[in-house]
Every structure is written in C-alpha cells, then in structure tokens.
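Q: Predict the bound structure with calcium ion.
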Amino acid sequence: MEPNATVVILAAGSGTRMKSRKAKVLHEAGGLALVEHVVRAALTVAAPGHIVVVTGHQADQVEDLLQGRGLRFARQTEQNGTGHALEACRDAVPEHEGLLIVLYGDCPLLRASTLASLVRQHNLARATATVITTEVPNPTGYGRCILDEDNCVRAIVEEKVATAEQKAVRVINSGIYCFDAATLWQKLGEIVPNPVSGEYYLTDIVEILNASGHKVHSLLHGDYGELLGINTKVELSEADGILRRRKNTDLMLAGAVIRRPETVSIDVDVTVGIDTIIDPFCQLTGSTTIGENCHIGAGAILSDTRIDDDVEIAPYTIIGRSVVETGASIGPFARLRMDNHVGAGSHIGNFVELKKTRFGKGVKAGHLAYLGDSEIGAGTNIGAGTITCNYDGSKKHRTVIGEGAFIGSNSTLVAPLEVGGTAYIAAGSVITETVPEGALGIGRGRQSNKEGWVEKRKSAPATSSRPADGQ
Ligand code: UD1
Ligand code: CA
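A: Predicted complex:
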C-alpha cells in the first residue's frame, strides 16, 4: 500500500472492437468482469478512497458492479480518448500531489507484484513518469514505444499514425503508468486532438513531458502475457485462459489434485482444500468453496456452492447456490438447483432433483426423485420415483418429513404436507393429508386378481376381443 498514491482506472470506452452490446470492461474473464480485476490490482497499492474509476459507456452498470467499496467515480460523458478520460476525473481525484497511477480497465492480468515494482522503480529513479513497457511478438494495435539511448521513452506512437518503420517496433506501451501527480495535472491540458482520429491520446503526454525536460522512464516487463489489453473477443478468451491456468496452478501448489487441468474451468474466487481431487471437465464458478479430501467427478458444474470436507460429487452433477455438509455423496447426474442444504453423510443418487430443500443428517434419496420446497429429517429414506407436488398452478407449497421416515417408491406427496417422524408411506401412494408420526400412510387403489382370466379369454367367442370385466 502506497500512502500517497492515487489510482485512476479508465473504463469509459464502449469497446467497439468487442462487437458487443455490453460495455467492454463488463465482459468477464476468469469469472469476473475485466474492470473488477483491475480494481483488485489497484486496491493493492491505494486505499479505496484514492481509487477513481472513470465511467461513461454504460456507466450505471459499471458503477453498480463496483458499488459499496468506497471507490470514487467520475463520468466521461463523451468518449474522446484516454487523455480526455483522465481529464474527466481531475475534480474527482482527492489529491493532486504524490503519485498518480493510471490503469486501463481492459488490462485484467496485471499482477499486484508488477504494480509494486512500478512504484518502487519510479520512486528509486525519482522519475516524473514511468511507463511499463514490454516486447511482444506481434505489436499490432498497441502504441509503439520510441526509446532513446538511456532506454527512456521519447514518444508513444499509436498504430493509426505510425510509419512503417515505427510499426516494426515491438516494444509496446502497456497502458500502465506512474506519474508525479502535480506535473501530470499541470501538463495534461497540453494534449491536443490527434489529427487522424480527433481523440485526445494520453500517450501524447510522453512527448509533452520530454519537451519540457522530464524524462519518461520505461520499466520493461518480461512477461507480455500479463499486460494483454483486451480489445476483441479473441483476446478476451486468451485472458480467460491465462487466468484459469494461473488459478489451477495456484490450487495445485496449495494441495489440490486437478486431473487434465486444461479441461477444468475454475473461477478466480473459488477455494479448494488439500487432497481434493477434481476430475476432467469440471466447472467451479462464483463463490464456490470446496473442503479437503473431496472428490469432484468428471463434468460436475458447481456454482456459488459450499462443499465441506470428505464429500463425493459423482460425475455430471450440477449444483447451484447450495451447501453440502461433510461426508455427503451426490450424483452421478443429480441436480441441486438452488438454496439446498444437504446434511452430513446424506446420499443423493442419480437423476434426483432438489430445489429449496433441506436434508438433515444421513438422508438417502438414491434414485429418480423431485424434492422441492421440502424439509426432510435426519435418517429418512426417500424411495425411487418420489415426487413432491409443490406447485398447485399458482403457489408453491412445502413438504415437511420428520426424522427416520420411509417414503416408499413412486410416492406422490401433494403439498402442503406433513409426514411425521418414523412414518412409512406405502409405495405408489398419492398422499394428500398429514401422516402422523409412526403411522403407515397408504393412498392407492387395491389390487384384485381375476382367477382364470387368461383361459376364459382364449375360449371367448371370436367377435369379442377379450372377456368382459368381472366374468
Ligand atoms: C491504449 C493505448 C496504447 C496501448 C494500449 C495498451 C492510448 C491512446 N493508447 O490503446 O498505447 O498500447 O492501450 O493496452 O491510450 N477509455 C476511456 N475513454 C475513452 C477511451 C478509452 O475511458 O474515451 C478507456 C477504455 O475503456 C479502456 C482504456 O481506456 O479501458 C483503453 O482504451 P482502448 O481504446 O482500449 O485503447 P487501445 O486502443 O487499446
Ligand atoms: Ca485496449
């Protein structure tokens, strides 16, 4: 944390090259909006009140996303370039002295350590301005850095105005800068619109500073992949891939086993405990946390879900916004839609669907069931084919089953309904009324056998296809 640093994040552009109805900085990589990554990097160098996000295109959505953390916002009502965007936040910046760090909202891979070295090198050199530069194999689209014999930056030339010779330069501007704030605010007004595009390019500040005797230092960064600016959906997918590789690597170094990690997609905020095994083609998203020693089977999709220790999630199970306690086993092919709580040691088998349902400890629902808006007591067994009829066409109703109950296969439980503890429901029942504790509830037609029916059918006159009922 730098006590005298202010960070400005430029996030007002529409991102024409994304070819999208959504503002560029709202697109996600690694499960977070691009601008969210940049804000997190900024928070490692400056306090929230010293971070100003410049918004413009879809400003309300961008500000909503970043709300509630004490950041400051400034509006750039017309997007006239990066220089114009910085000017738009002059009044919102709390201090015009100390360090001013400028970041672009489309640079999501920047690491905190790189930002820290920028500040360190800037302070050590007592520089007026320091730019992070990097050498890329294909510089197309980036501003080219023209360096002098001391490796200082004389100018940054944008693609649109670069000569063929300048275009061949492979050292590019990352768009990450550290300035002496007082000098920057004094000189910023000298930027004039670019003759080709009519935009105010922040990069022109480099020549302006040089002209008034201020050297612009370059911090050459070795890993260009970290400085990727996202302009197109191709670059978006590259950034997403890099973030997910980083995440998998971090988790494996911290003790998780990830099999075929190139097929596994884990959002940046997910946590996974030691010795948990994650099989190929899993997706773990949002705020999912997984305990220790779990096994997450192939193709499982878990979002915003808490999985405690020693849980087995068998292949192709989908769980959203739920809690699964220690030692439970779920799947294969189970679906827990939302707001479920599965008690310790419970088992949910194949083709079972849960919605807003709470299992106590050791509940078993082994096969083919729909349990919605239900509360199921510890140790209860739910037979194959059990359906809670929770919807009457206009309202949802609850089913409450006590502890140690036994629900026979193919039971239809018409909610609102209570089934007491230790009660039994006979297989194939339609249950519409309360079943008291310890009772057997039967709700089905009685079976009757017609003795000799087959023989009678054979000897019946040819005109009749089968004997009449009761004969
Ligand atoms: C910019 C740099 C280029 C650098 C590259 C690094 C300029 C003129 N060029 O080019 O030298 O190599 O980034 O990725 O700065 N923005 C606004 N308001 C505007 C215009 C842009 O807030 O009026 C924001 C955008 O939302 C974006 C950022 O500034 O987050 C950068 O804009 P973008 O258009 O992507 O710049 P590049 O062409 O990539
Ligand atoms: Ca860009």
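A: The pocket of calcium ion (ligand 2) is lined by residues 104, 106, 229, 231 (CB under 6 Å).
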